[in-house]
Amino acid sequence: MEAITITLDGVEVGGHPGMTILDLARESGVDIPSLCHDPLLTPIGACRICLVEDERSGRLLASCVTPIESGMVINTQSPKVQERRKTIIKLILASHPDTCLVCDKGNQCELRKIASDMGVGLVGLQKIPLKATIEEVNPFIERDLSKCILCAKCIRADHEIVVQGAIDYIERGFASKPATLNDSPLENSDCTFCGACVAICPTGALMEKKLVYRGTTLTNVSTICPFCGCGCSINLEVKDNQIVRARPGKEGVVSRGALCVKGSYGYDFVHSPERLTSPLVKVNGDFEAVSWDEALAKVASELKRIKETQGPNSLALLGSSKCTNEENYLLQRLARGVLGTNNIDNASRLYSAPSIVGLGSTVGFPGTTNSLNALEQSEVIMVIGANLTSSAPAVGYAVKRAARYKGAKLLLIDPQQTNLSSFAHLWLRPGVGTDLALVNGMARVIVTEGLLDEEFVTRKTDNYEVWSKELEKYTPGYVEEVTGVPGDDVVRTARLFAEANLASIVYGDGITQHLTGTDTVIALANLAMLTGNVGLGGGIFALQRDCNGLGACDMGALPDLLPGYQSVGNPQAIKTFADRWDTDLPSDGGLTAIEMIDHAIEGKVKGMYIVGENPVLSFPNQSLIKEALTSLDFLVVQDMFLTETAKLANVVLPAASFAEKEGTFTNFEGRIQRVCKVIEPIGDSLPDWEIIVQLANSMGNPMPYSSLQQVKEEIQELVPLYQDTGYMDPEAKDMHRGELEKAPLRSRRLYKGQFPSGFGRFSPVQYEPQEETPKDGYPLTLLTGSVLYHSGTGSRSSRSPRLSEFSPESYLEIGEPDATQFGISEGDEVRVVSPTGEVTAVAKFTDVLPEGMLFMPLSFPSTPINQLFGIALDPRAKTPALKACAVKLERIQPRG
Amino acid sequence: MDKVQQVPKPDLKQIEGIIASCKDQKWPLIPLLQRIQEEVGYIPPETINPIARAFGLFPSQVQGVITFYEQFYTTPRGRKVVRVCRGTACHVRGGKTILKLVKQNLGLEEGETSPDLEYTLETVACIGVCALAPNIVIGKETHGNMNPKKVSQLLGDKKGSG
Question: CB distance from B45 to chain A under 8 Å?
Fold first, then answer.
């Protein structure tokens, strides 16, 4: 590319074609003020503050929208420029209230800053009537459009980053303003309260509601959002050991200027009055606060006693997909090296174990194969079994950006209508639990029509012949019969997917939480390999529900795999760890999460140590789980709150929140990101890693770490996935698994020469009808899932004052035709009954569900929908089916 | 605000047809809105969502375009639109009084539509036939040299006609 040289304030500077004057000036350290420009948004030249003078013609140019041209002579500070900028600021101020003294934006206001820089105080112009404030009841965002300067940053952030489209200009001239459809309050609009507009607004027009502190904070710490598996960077502002504001991290490669409502407003669970502040020991049925020494001594002696009397395998540990990598590493070391058992698992068993098993056995790498950026560059994106808006908002934004602005074709496979439906090129609505037949049907079309990537299949995979023969029965006609998706649509979807150069697959809980989860993941991997979309570009994107679901597995909080997915059956791997830890290690496979419960019921597991997980709500069949946990000799729960599970414990250890500790989270892409300490731990709570190290000390098997850095050194040494990632660099914010980011985009390959195990392996998987579908007496299918305003089982989000105010209780989504059939009106209290159990909820009408299908969120502790599920496990991944079940409805009474 | 008591439900089928017929145009939105207004008389707000869906836009964007242009109406209009000129020439020759009389005769204020959807009253800045001032336009027909008698001849006493 040829460089362009221009003269900027008398100095020659070079830029490249396509740069604007403003871009080049900022790159060269020349300050040009602007109110409407943001590097993340399309420049529109709205505010005119960035005017500069072209000395040759004397013309004034808006530098943010003027491309550089060779030989330009630009003056950014000429008297003409200064005078014009002053006039513009005065005109803006003429329609701006004189309320700077009481404006919550304070000295973060960009308008005030520019006016003050230019010495504009009194305006001397007649005031233009101001717009009225808008009354809104939502607890997140306050709009005072009298302070709006019509820079359209909020509108562009909404359209270009989040791609939600809740607001746009309405009217024109003096009346024009950013508004929702019908100018309704935000809570009645399409707004998802992601907060991107608030973060980008240059004035006080858009502000957080319920500000705790109005001034400018001195401490701002960039860390990682603790909710879903996207791993957005958030910048937390702190005053007096209290987090007062969250903003999207500017450099965040995942968040890119936007969070979701949980990231922007949900952090306040950290300061919930329900936080545990001291260790608790149960005495005669009641908890008593005790010292750490006392609590740890009790835990140590009980665990020791059980180990000695009943054997190490009578103990079981549950690690946390919400704790850091280092904490999960230490916990599995505690299990294996100190307690001597492989009975350790983590809660990602509930939703992502099928990915580890399914992808591990096909592409040989247990997780997402490419970066979010590569997803956004794809020509075709297939989203299957994932409501991205609620379960992975940042991925949703990327997919919507690709579909709306980059020409990507979105193939949406979801029985429910979601926010993505209106972006879909094709939208297929298969019956619940039939995805496997659909995916195999697509593969068959590609094989029979010869659309496969032959070179890729021949050179990089094996078992193709065997596998492709097993596809024969999945004709479009058969697939239509099984899934209800018209055969023609199956063919069209398959062709589109195969013909694209870069095609990606995004899947979530809607795939993994069915009994056939592992098989369906394998089918998806087969499809990706068949079309050459593993490694080169495109890829398989396995979503994670929790912030560190992938990391917990990477760290070996798994019963059959050591850190870095090294099998416990591999003597070499066992020896490596045994030598490093100088102890004997068990080599028999341990129990998975649900198997621990079975063994507790059978009396084989006597003691459990549960860290940051709430099985009473998250595992299926609540009454059985409670029975199992109460039947234990000893239960210790380590958590921030007295959760439903913690209430059953003998000892509760208070853990610090994400904001109170250091460490790393690994997001769904495999990006290792640094979690930074923002505030001191609340009360006597301690970071989980410190608790584990102290517990090992109390048990007489001290772990040789005096700092977290030493834990990291050991991980880097022993976990191949974490080598060459810059993982140890204390300055690095974002460490990516080596090869993903190093190569330029087009040549980027996860598997440069070959797959990790030599070849990708096609594996035949067959569709079998499942139990989850309607049956006698239970005519409806209930789907469950996460919702935007809550996370997981809600143990944190239900304690966030703002999230719980906005979304306080559970509900049952039902289509009007189904409701009429059961005599249910909107707002009625309804009993939802499955063969296993029942819950009650308030009916809410919706038109997003096909007939016969209902939806309930899983995140409300007061409505434990896990009661509806019996325990049925995916035979390979041992993940319980928790996505759908057959139910019937009983109307209780109208509300009120 | 319009004193419209009963708004007939717009025929969404008819509108879907219009949308479908514009689908292949390159810049379809404004011509589409014009056609809907021509055929339905106004742009029913219920059409915003189907239009947005059909053209890959956000509903808020469609609303933005509709409200930007004076020519688009989101409430039903009368079968006869009466436009009274308030240009300089008409003003000098008594346009203000003509407007007052028209208001009295129709029982409408500026921008209002009669409940029976017969008349809508508007003012315009100038219609370009200043030689015949003062002017009013009813539907597509221009009436020049207006005086009180002609106003009552043309519009009679239409008050309460609904």
Answer: yes
Residues B96 and B144 in one domain: yes
Q: Which residue in chain A is spatially nearest to B64 when comparing CA positions?
A: A170
The one-character DSSP state at A162 is: I
Query: CA A747 to CA A379: how far, in whole Å?
Result: 16
pLDDT in tens, B127-150: 999 999 999 999 889 999 999 999
Alpha carbon A623 to chain centroid distance? 30
The count of domains in chain B is 2
Q: What is the CATH number of the domain that holds B130?
A: 3.40.30.10
This model of the complex carries an ipTM of: 0.88
Query: For residue A24, what are the contacts with CB-CB under 8 A and spacing of at least 6?
Result: A6, A8, A13, A15, A68
Angstrom distance (rounded) from CA A582 to CA A146: 68
**Half-sphere exposure of residue A1, counting CA atoms within 13 Å on the CB side?**
9
| Domains, chain A | 4-77 (3.10.20.740), 126-271 (3.30.70.20), 280-350+548-669+676-720 (3.40.50.740), 353-543+755-761 (3.40.228.10), 780-893 (2.40.40.20)
- The answer for B107, left when phi > 0, alpha when psi is -120 to 50, beta otherwise, is left
Going along A536-596, which residue ranges are E strands? 539-542, 561-562, 566-567
Q: Is B58 on the interface with A (CB under 8 A)?
A: yes
- CB distance B84 to B121 below 8 Å: yes
Residue B128 Rama label (left phi>0; alpha psi -120 to 50; beta): left
Mean pLDDT of all residues in A494-515 = 96
Interatomic CA distance for residues A168 and A145, integer angstroms: 13
Q: What is the pLDDT of residue A704?
A: 92
B121 and B62 in one domain?
no
Check A181 against B68: CB less than 8 A apart.
Answer: no
Cα B92 from chain centre: 26
CA distance B138 to B159: 17
Q: What is the DSSP string of A123-145?
A: --SPPPPPPPP-----SSEEE-G
pLDDT digits (tens, 9 = 90+) for A230-280: 999 999 999 999 999 999 987 778 888 899 999 999 999 999 999 999 999
Residues of A in Cβ contact (< 8 Å) with B56: 404, 423
Size of interface A-B (CB pairs under 8 A): 43
Range of the domain at B127: 80-155
Specify whether the CB–CB gap between B125 and B86 falls below 8 A.
yes
Q: Within this chain, do residues B122 and B143 fall inside the same structural domain, yes or no?
A: yes
Residue whose pair of structure tokens reads 């906005």 in the numeric block: A806
Q: Are residues B84 and B105 in the same domain?
A: yes
